[in-house]
From TrEMBL, chains A, B:
This is Polyprenyl synthetase. PANTHER family: FARNESYL DIPHOSPHATE SYNTHASE. GO terms for molecular function: metal ion binding; prenyltransferase activity. It comes from Caulobacter radicis. The keyword rRNA processing does not apply.
Length: 301, 301
């Protein structure tokens, strides 16, 4: 039991060290003063470097490690996925979109700066993700192009952009579970899947394993979304670090299934994630990481 | 003289055929109904497929041809640069930016549709450019990554995004010529340069020739910007197909140099462009194309 505690402690230390490494690299890859106008640089850094879980880059790094990538090989690609995620948060929060006031515990970027700066920061960050991937000399040209392609598919007209458009267009309509799943998939799932799959690719995983890693990430992402819904339904603004209760008009998993039904669905996704990871032949720290994310789930729900 | 006329006619026919080819390919590469929500798909197609000069893709195609690229090898990369250009127009026109009402002779996308759809269309189109480049199996992985890198550099915090931010931030200040040149470079030049250089790269040009092609495009772009300023200062909305007189509060080349001074600067850029193209060892249809663009310049000024 002491061994078990020590093992858990070791995993936590290692994860925290990886996350700190992502933060340091993000600070290096973000635009610096002297390039773009100061106000834009400040806005980008304000948004990108705000404390966060770094969920997507952690998936990339841990999936790469699970398949034997050399140390640091996936770091820039991992950061690119965090840039895309930060860009999508900025753009989704805009007055013309969700008109959110708080994000990651701070005023949203269009409130802290202004709307034009927010739009340019979002677009610039998305673009910077491709700049970082394309310039990643640690990867072969073929692999850089493949990572760009997977990221672009996740962002585009079958991913984040489509999901946000769909969310805005049918926000007032009653949604059934398949529509909720589709929306979650586009708005959240596709990027999480791509982040993990890119890590596996960089680690040299074969096609079947990459698919299974994608399924692992998809299930973890769905579980995570439900966990967010649970927090949103019951949590406070302080705990969530963003506006809560905003989804009340939407039809979320919680409002359809109730709290206990949503919790059961979350558990089902987590079990399926474990199975997929086992089938991929990966695991190790990646599986432990997913487990950690939901360690407090009983308290949260 | 009849030979000369026939030659000119042949060039015109060939250019028009290339432009039509770009238009057809753009229609194929644009998102189709059944992927993203219909409203977003319509907005993207409305903007991307509106009639235009296709200046950037023509530079890519003709630069590729000048260095011996096989037929069609640069077509998708060329279309990607038009997507980036269309995205930048959508975003620059937004209410939070230039708040423009007319573009390419049509209501701007946020007026014809709505602001959220316009933002998503702009972001989606930018992203689609990277999707198209990354998936271009006619190019090696190395070349796809290089094209992505050059495009991303042109868009990002040292290019279009920086230029738009700078334009908004110091719009009310008096600008000197070096500031005007820098702004033009970021807002227009960098993308034009990248479009031409990518064509030369796909054609197999060496580094020195790629640089010269960039200088050719830079000079043509500067001349073109002055031509736009001249039209803006004197032309009508009908002729320009977009809001005119909007730059009156800005300090443009025309307002600083006067009409005849601006014309002289334009001619100087065009002469330098010819020299750069000669030094690159390229030319042919690319030089003829640049000449055609300014064929009516005496009338315009």
């Amino acid at each position: 039991m002491d061994d078990q505690v020590a093992l858990q402690q070791g995993l936590l230390t290692r994860m925290e060290s990886l996350r700190a490494r992502v933060d340091r690299r993000l600070a290096e890859l973000a635009p610096a003063h002297g390039t773009a106008p100061d106000r834009l640089v400040e806005a980008v850094r304000y948004s990108l470097l705000a404390p966060g879980k770094r969920f997507r880059p952690m998936l990339t790094l841990l999936a790469a490690e699970a398949f034997g990538a050399s140390d640091g090989a996936a770091l820039d690609a991992a950061c690119a996925f965090e840039m895309i995620h930060a860009a999508s948060l900025i753009l989704d929060d805009l007055p013309a979109m969700d008109d959110a006031g708080l994000r990651r515990g701070l005023p949203t970027i269009h409130r802290a700066f202004d709307e034009a700066t927010a739009i340019l920061a979002g677009v610039g960050l998305l673009n910077q993700a491709y700049a970082v991937i394309a310039a990643d000399k640690g990867l072969s040209g073929e692999l850089r192009a493949e990572v760009c392609a997977r990221a672009a598919e996740a962002v585009g007209f079958m991913g984040l952009v489509a999901g946000q458009a769909r969310d805005l267009l049918d926000r007032d309509q009653l949604r059934d579970m398949s529509q909720i799943d589709r929306l979650n998939h586009e708005k959240t799932g596709v990027l999480i899947i791509a982040a993990a799959q890119v890590g596996a690719l960089i680690g040299g995983a074969d096609e079947a394993a990459v698919e299974q890693v994608g399924e692992f990430a998809r299930r973890v992402g769905l579980a995570f979304q439900i966990r967010d819904d649970l927090i949103d339904a019951e949590g406070s603004v302080e705990a969530a670090g963003k506006d809560t209760g905003k989804d009340a008009a939407m039809t979320t998993a919680v409002s359809r299934l109730g709290v206990s039904g949503a919790r059961a669905a979350m558990e089902e996704h987590l079990a399926a994630a474990e199975n997929a990871l086992a089938a991929a032949g990966g695991g190790g720290l990646l599986g432990a990481y997913a487990g950690r994310l939901f360690a407090g789930r009983k308290a949260a729900a």
